[in-house]
Amino acid sequence: MIPLFVAIPLGAAFIIPLISKIREGSARWIAAGSALALLCLSVSSLWWVRKGVLVYSVGGWKPPFGICMVLDHLSVLMLLVINLIGFLVLLYSLDYIKKYTAPSLYYTLFSLLLAGLNGLAISGDLFNLFVFLEIASISSYALIAFGTEAEELEASFKYLVLGNVADLLILFAIGVLFGRASTLNMADLARSLQSISLTDPVLYAAALFIVGFGLKTALVPFHAWLPDAHPAAPAPMSAMLSGVVIKVVGVYALTRVIFSVIGITPLISSVLMFLGIVSMAAGVLLAIGQWDFKRLLAYHSISQIGYVVFGIGLGTPLGVAGGLFHLFNHSLFKSLLFLNSGAVEHATGTRDLRKLGGLCRTMPVTSATSLVASLSIAGVPPLCGFWSKLLIIMAAFQAGHTIGAVVCILTALVTLASFLKVQKFAFLRAAEGLCKGAREVPFFMLAGMVLLALLCIAAGVFFSPFLELVITPAAQVILEGRRYAGFVLGG
Amino acid sequence: MRQESGMTLIVKRITRITVSLIFLFGVYIMLHGHLTPGGGFAGGVIIALSFIHLVLAFGKKAALKRISETTISAFESIGGVFFWSIALGGLLFSGVYFLNFLPKGEAFSLFSAGTIVFCNIAIFLKVGAGLFAIFVALAFLRMPDEKEEGGKAA
Amino acid sequence: MSLYALCFILFSIGLYCLLVKRNLVKKIIGLGIAEYAVNLFFILLGFKENAEAPIIDKYAATQNFVDPLPQALILTSIVIGLGVMAVMVAISVRIYEKYRTFDIREIRRLKG
């Protein structure tokens, strides 16, 4: 069953261009159907992994010789994030993407993106991971430029250049590891690289991996592309990029490589924490002055990813669990916020906050869902963002990392201020000229937003069973580090 | 020195002779992919080059009359679907994704290696059509080009 | 070892070109150089002196051959590189149509 995670969206991506020659309208239903099937599969995979790690040898070639796919709890969490957000975003796109000229191309690229991300999450082979990373990246470059306006092309080119540098660095690092251990299977690599001294080339590979995946994640010294690229894409695509792509391509791949293959050392851990803290603070400070709705959200993505990386970098059970929980929550509320911004743009034609206003009366559903998302991201108690931030802050205090904890708290406050600004200017204050005639958006767009808002509330209210069922086992995978090799290869 | 429809008579005459040979060579490389160096990708590139050769010699109109953009894109999708169904065939017939489920035959003969020949044919179609589509989209049509499909053929 | 160093220098040249040059086309060329440097690095990892190509032959069994795995990987990586290059060229063509220039100093409508 495991290869279906790649096979279904890949098949959809190949079939859509054929079918849409005959019937233009059928592309959306194929894409939506495949996304729904993937969602069902990833929910049921929660049950598959209960007995332990599943290893699938593609083509019957046993690891470490063939390519293998590995399904453990961390992969399951990632699959859940990808396919849940993917399905809801696709639901939203059914109505949103109608205004573009070639919708079937959008669905093809979207399915390709899902295939790349799913493959990345279940790959057990370092080079295979790179190939899926490229598939996901190429489709996201094309999707950012989908509108083919001047700004979109410029943003896409910027992302292309920096993303390519990242890819080359990652490939270089894979080469270094291959030269050292003569294998590319991640479990086999983990077994060969038992102890790392400070003069080991593996440490060089680790640095290259951190820079490469850091570029993909947009951690602060490497963040320049994100505030351009994410707002330029069509709104559902920005939701996908901010909610899923930077997490799977960046955080997940980094965590997998650093923790399960290379092994965490105090040095790497402190580098990760430093990057996390800097991203948190810088992201939010850059965000607060923004007036473009989507650009503001993009800067907040940098800051929130900082939380995730900081939590995982702490390396304590509480910190890692908090980081992963925040990753899940952030994918919910950030995609929701991007979808809201898309709805606002769809209805009014602008996303400049200074020109908006009074939308809470004309667009009640969009306004209500955006309120839920804003409160979640700001960390207001009953909603999901609060619990994950609380876990990370507690973990930071526990680990004696007071500076990090204080930065976390301050960032949360500034985030709250910044989203109060969004709520006030876009939704609450008296209506401006542009927003008088705004009408609520079509059904599927509303459906996507409402479902995401409900999930935000549910993840906040039922956080403790969710934490126990999904997050803690996933955190366990990270904490077990290189014992990953034993689970995959046996013995 | 480009005239209304393509290049000079000499080029056209030579092209008429060489194109079919290049085409055949591409097919040869593809069919012997499991025996000698080469395979679907190399064969596909060669065949795309033969079409590009044709376009350069005879001009855009004459070449695109024979193979329209829709046909190219359809061929590419067919290649993709074909490759995908080989992978799924392994899953259906023997329970393992991408398993080589056909009889392997005798080593070093043309009809051997099970599904690998068919994989090569699929990649051949995809790469050939994809590369030619990229060329046409970039050089001639100036059409919207979210066509990066070469990367998928990996 | 010096071969690896040369590889690294080639990579640095490509990276320099990619990051410093102001012309989009030159950036693309720089990307190509950096990519080939990485590919070369991989191939060198599997290289053995006086070895043969890793092809099984009907007539003579090859004993001493270079590592075929990096070659297979690099074949994939070249294909990926082709795809990325195609997207890059396509986007820069479109950028030229919109801005009528390849100079990035004049392509800056995004800021903040």
| Fraction of residues in β-strands of chain C | under 5%
- Structural class of the helix and strand makeup of chain B? mainly alpha
Rg of chain B, alpha carbons: 18 Å
CATH architecture group name of chain C: Orthogonal Bundle
Give the helices and strands, then pairings:
The complex is a heterotrimer of chains A (491), B (154) and C (112).
Chain A: H1 4-22, H2 26-48, E1 54-57, E2 68-71, H3 73-96, H4 103-122, H5 126-144, H6 150-181, H7 186-192, H8 201-217, H9 226-232, H10 235-262, H11 266-288, H12 293-314, H13 317-348, H14 359-362, H15 364-378, H16 384-398, H17 402-428, H18 443-461, H19 463-480, H20 484-489
Antiparallel strand pairs in A: 1-2
Chain B: H1 9-31, H2 40-66, H3 69-94, H4 116-141
Helix pairs in contact in B: 1-2, 2-4, 3-4
Chain C: H1 2-20, H2 24-45, H3 68-99
How would you sum up this structure, described in words?
The complex is a heterotrimer of chains A (491), B (154) and C (112). Chain A is built from 20 helices and two strands. A two-stranded antiparallel ribbon of chain A has the order 1-2. Chain A has 491 residues and is mainly alpha-helical. Chain A has one domain (4-489). The longest helix of chain A is centred in the middle third of the chain and has 32 residues, at 150-181. Chain B has 154 residues and is an all-alpha fold. Chain B is 66% helix and 0% strand. Chain B is built from four helices and no strands. Chain C has helices spanning 2-20, 24-45, 68-99. Chains in contact: A-B, A-C, B-C. Chain A binds chain C through residues 127, 130-131, 134, 138, 141-142, 145, 148-151, 153-158, 160-161, 164-165, 167-168, 171-172, 175, 178-179, 184, 227-228, 232, 290, 292, 295, and chain C through 11, 15, 18-19, 24, 27, 31, 34-35, 38, 41-42, 45, 69-70, 73, 76-77, 80, 83-84, 87-88, 91-92, 94-95, 98-99, 107-110, 112.
